[in-house]
Amino acid sequence: MIRGSRYPTEKHLRHALLDRVRRFVALTGRSRSEIGVGALNDKAAVGRIEEGSNFKIGTYQRLMTWLDDNWPRRRLTQRKSGRRQEATDNDSVSQV
């Protein structure tokens, strides 16, 4: 539960969104500009949000939906040892 408020504030939403963007960039190597263009057709949108610009809930929802839709999918791969390991679509997996 969020302290001091029953509902998330803009600050909480901003933090959640930017944390998600950072993780996506780290996992995929894609840029914040690519995310902004893909989600909002605006390459500077994520940067403005990071700088503290106000945003509407619709902007938050479009960005989060785009991130969900483009998040690397996990799949199980078989190792030579017979053990299974997780990999994302972006990981290179050696052929067994």
In words, what does this structure look like?
This protein has a domain at 10-73. Strands 1-2 form a two-stranded antiparallel sheet. 50% of the residues lie in helices and 10% in strands. It has helices spanning 10-28, 32-40, 45-50, 57-70; strands at residues 74-78, 84-88. It is mainly alpha-helical and 96 residues long. Helix 2 crosses helix 4.
Total number of helices: 4
| Strand adjacency order, main sheet | 1-2
The sequence of SSEs as H and E is: HHHHEE
> What is the CA-based Rg, rounded?
17 Å
Uncertain regions spanning at least 5 consecutive residues: 91-96
Main β-sheet, in a few words? 2 strands, antiparallel
Proportion in helices:
40-55%
> Averaged pLDDT, please?
84
Distance from N terminus to C terminus (CA atoms, Å) equals 46 Å
Q: What is the strand tally?
A: 2
Shape: globular
SSE arrangement:
Elements: H1 10-28, H2 32-40, H3 45-50, H4 57-70, E1 74-78, E2 84-88
Antiparallel strand pairs: 1-2
Helix pairs in contact: 1-4, 2-4
Features:
2 strands; 50% helix; disordered C terminus; 96 residues
Short synopsis of the structure:
This protein is mostly helical and 96 residues long.
